[in-house]
Design goal:
single chain; mainly beta; four-stranded antiparallel β-sheet; 53% strand
Length: 117
């Protein structure tokens, strides 16, 4: 059974930081491209950051320079370090695992991030 379990969300003031974690089980983690997506109320889910199995990373323009994605293959975990948070970063953040060659994709249940004073 594949599981992606996010943690680390919460309420933070503007300018603050949070680190999200996603622990993955049931797949060969190192084979998968990992991503963080977010969905704000009334908006579509969007890609925030991705870290391929080959160590490449990419970011949404809105978070470049503020967010950092990393992964620890030994711990089957992907992280999202979020700094200089803004109210517009408020959303539910989802962890995603994708293996394009075999067409498999999995999602976590999401963790809520609220940026507010």
């Amino acid at each position: 059974q594949v599981q992606l379990v996010e943690s680390g969300g919460g309420l933070v003031q503007p300018g603050g930081s949070l680190r999200l974690s996603c622990v993955v089980s049931g797949i060969i983690f190192s084979f998968y491209d990992m991503g963080w997506y977010r969905q704000a109320p009334g908006k579509q889910r969007e890609l925030v950051a991705a870290h391929t199995s080959g160590r490449s990373t990419n970011y949404a323009d809105s978070v470049k320079g503020r967010f950092t994605i990393s992964r620890d293959n030994a711990k089957n975990t992907v992280y999202l370090q979020m700094n200089s948070l803004k109210p517009e970063d408020t959303a539910v953040y989802y962890c995603n695992a994708k293996e394009s060659t075999i067409g498999r994709e999995y999602w976590g249940q999401g963790t809520a991030v609220t940026v507010s004073s």
